Amino acid sequence: xxxxxxxxxxxxxxxxxxxxxxxxxIAGIRKAMAEKADLYDYEIVCAIDGSPDKVSSVxxxxxxxxxxxxxxxxxxxxxxxNAQMASLHYAGGDYCICLDDDGQCPIEHVWELFxxxxxxxxxxxxxxxxKEQSRFKNFGSRVNHIMVHLLLDVPSDFxxxxxxxxxxxxxxxxxxxxxxxxxxxxxxxxATDNFAFVPMREHPRASGKTGYxxxxxxxxxxxxxxxxxxxxxxxxxxxxxxFALLGFGFGxxxxxxxxxxxxxxxxxxxxxxxxxxxxGIIMCLLGLIxxxxxxxxxxxxxxxxxxxxxxxxVESDAAGAKPGQ
Length: 325
Known about the structure:
Distance between the termini: 42 Å
Number of helices: 11
Mean pLDDT: 82
Order of helices and strands: EHEHEHEHEHEHHEHHHEH
CATH architecture of the largest domain: Alpha-Beta Complex
């Protein structure tokens, strides 16, 4: 009698400056999976995003001891979203679970996160009532949350999280995005509206500090703004109409006041202020349009989403077929 093939779960981890916590993260995954070893198989796909520390050596050592650990080393730092896409390209499981490399994801609750997928949910997301991060990162997360709800058609309770799981067909839809500006929440929202949110508590960061600088947060916001919605352009058009009406109204008022009050003095200061204000708005809107055009130009030139330097525990024929190499 043949042994039935167990469903496989792929754990996808982008790695950057995680030399110290990554071993504990993988140990946590192993411990959690041991609880249901008779029901599920698993693999761990770690994409090293041009990390300057020794996380590559740590992962290579772990991969030499366990063939279920796959290592995908990128040629440079492409960004967390791009590294996440790289890990998904090399994942082959029936389910995918994405988590961070810093130990903040409560991996001991992975089966609670996974439970909605066994019912009817396509995507299950960890919902944190409070995030264990700096005020700066909390501000960035709040802006990201507001942006997602303004620009994407998502449920009212949708949350952006660093710990989420989804089915294989969702992964295939996400991987259809070929451009160098991936925004994972937007890709998930485009693929389905069948979400589940599981309350749990986020762990404090195991060591070090976040790799997100202000520049990287702005880049993340711009990915969300420009990659999956044209609403910012529609807002720009609306603002243009509003200011055109305001300009027409002020111009009409100036003509009428000059007709009925011919001795009135002209207000050079107010005119100068109005010109600066409207000119500033025009330049901002032109910058927004330029951002869209620039990204279109880069996408047309087929800038790579990621470039793989080497892989460990990945079959050579599969590696050769992966995009971005």
